[in-house]
Amino acid sequence: MSSVLYDTPGPRAIRRNRTLGVVTVLVVAAVLAFVVYRLFETGQFEAKKWELFTLPLVHQNMFNALLNTLQAFAYAAVLSLILGLVLSLGRMSVHKWVKYPATAFIELFRAVPLLILMFILYYGLPPLGVEGITPFIAVVTGLTLYNGSVLAEVFRAGVEGLPIGQAESGYAIGLRKSQVMRIILLPQAVRNMLPVIISQLVVVLKDTALGFLITYQELLFLAKFYGSQGQYGSPIIPSAIVFGTIYILLCLALAGVAKLVELRLRSKVGVATKAAGQEIDAGV
Amino acid sequence: MDTLFNNLDIFVDGFRMTFVLFFFAAIFALILGTIVGAMRVSPVTPMRAVGTVYVNLVRNTPLTLLMFFFAFGYPKLGLPDVGYTTLAIIALSLYTATYVAETLRSGINTVPVGQAEAARAIGLPFGQTMSLVILPQAFRATVPPMMSVFIALLKNTTIAAGFSVAEAGTIRQVLSERGEPQLTVLLWVALIFILAVGVLSLLQRYLENKWRVAR
Q: What pLDDT shows up at residue A2?
């Protein structure tokens, strides 16, 4: 193994690296062993605590909760892509009365914590006489407003990352402003930014878990519910393990798609880029 | 205005706790993130593997789930009671550390290959190559994205509100019991966050200009 940072290791370095490797493995194994030991010691692996998750009815409920999570994700993902596109076009507009409101909107919703945004929608609006705010609507609207604003910046970075010649040649052959944007700039920008866009969608998926805090009945909500079932010995840890695995697998699958797209894009040539892989720090 | 000034004590307490969460989580995330980031570029294969697994696993876990694990799971393990605030700080640190590690790693990648080659050509070992040549330059390239990570951390502290930590996110709950209009309270909280994020963004821009690497 050689890299820019170090030479191919010699005999002494190999020995040292091996020692460090063994130490790392031992430390990690020790930490894991301690956690498992504590779990075992406090009876988290008792059959009684896991029995709940073998019932068919529970499986049915878990499936419904999964659907709820995915439904919130799907709505929020599509809506925030649309909102992001509209906002980015607004922000790149040459008309000041379009540009400034769009900019203000983006900056505003990027700065407010998503949870506070959901609180405003869910707890703040009903007293004003706004009716029909279900947890689902609050979650989807909150996710859309926040991620739409982030995605708007991603789209903008994508368009601004293209070489200036792309737009110029469009104008030179007589295309209008909107045509240049629609036919030339946006397709390339979206393609270049596809990995970033998909990783932002992973953020959307992760943030659906916030719905738990405003009583949206998604996976985590069900995890809490089953975790506090007294007659099964309040299996909160088994419950967290079961539901956590589902979440992590979902996110890893989506992140895997992002990785795949990135690799495919990188192997292709002919996409105009000025600054390849421009970092957009998406919502953490 | 009245809502804010009549309940200033609650607001101050709430945001003080938010600041405490932010401050300690930022420090621990920086330390842990630097270690993990270094592990991910190190020549030792098991270290790289551990770093990669940790980053990929935790980055793909919702922070809410992580807090859930610590706030509800930890007390069941029969370990010393450390309080919900500490548990929230641990969850925030573990989560943010992965982003710190990734930011550092991409910062290291922005340092031109020639710098590392030159350092090795004059005989510096890995440790000195990193500490004397690569990291000082990587650090500068890292400042703007690192500030974004901390801005995100500041916003993420609100999630602790759902797990028995009395911070900015819980102000609404407390004040609705006092009969204050919830929307007004929440808008004040949002405004304070916007100001705080604005200050951090200004700092980010200032540092970005000050430490721009001349190449």
A: 44
Amino acid letter at A215?
Answer: T
Q: In the numeric block, which tokens belong to residue A141?
A: 């609207």
Query: What does the pLDDT read at residue B8?
Result: 78
Facing residue for B117 by CB, picked from A4, A113, A206: A4
Is residue B182 within 8 Å of A214, Cβ to Cβ? no
Q: In this complex, how many residue pairs, one in chain A and one in chain B, have their CB atoms less than 8 Å apart?
A: 172
Residue A231 structure tokens: 């007659």
Closest to A41 (Cβ–Cβ): which among B43, B45, B78? B78
Q: Is B116 on the interface with A (CB under 8 A)?
A: yes
Residue in chain B nearest A236 by alpha carbon: B73
Where in chain B are the domains?
A: 2-210
Q: Do A128 and B190 touch (CB under 8 A)?
A: no
Label residue A92 exposed, middle or buried (CB < 10 Å: 0-12, 13-18, 19+): middle
pLDDT in tens, B92-148: 999 999 999 988 888 887 788 888 888 888 888 878 888 888 878 887 788 888 888
Closest in B62, B69, B108 to A206, CB measured = B62
Q: Which two tokens stand for residue A177?
A: 């402003």
Residues of chain B in contact with residue A25, where contact means CB-CB under 8 angstroms, are 46
Q: From CA B101, how far away is CA A219, in angstroms rounded?
A: 29
Look up residue B80 and give its two tokens.
Answer: 């010393």
Asked if B44 and A240 count as a contact pair (C-beta separation under 8 A), the reply is no
The values of phi and psi at residue B78, to 5°, are: 70, 25
Question: Which residues 135-194 of chain A have a CB within 8 Å of chain B?
Answer: none
* CB-CB under 8 Å, B73 with A4: no
pLDDT tier, B1 (very low <50, low <70, confident <90, very high otherwise): low
Q: Structure pTM?
A: 0.86
ipTM attached to this prediction = 0.84
Q: What is the CATH number of domain B2-210?
A: 1.10.3720.10
Gap from A98 CA to chain B (nearest CA, Å): 22
Whole-number Å distance between alpha carbons of A89 and A186: 10
Average pLDDT of span B150-168: 84
- Across the 284 residues of chain A, what is the mean pLDDT of every consecutive 10-residue run? 63 85 89 85 76 80 88 93 93 90 91 89 81 87 93 90 90 91 89 86 90 84 80 79 88 86 72 48 50
Render pLDDT for A145-189 as a digit per residue (tens, 0 to 9): 999 999 999 999 899 888 889 999 999 999 998 899 989 998 888
Q: Is A82 on the interface with B (CB under 8 A)?
A: no
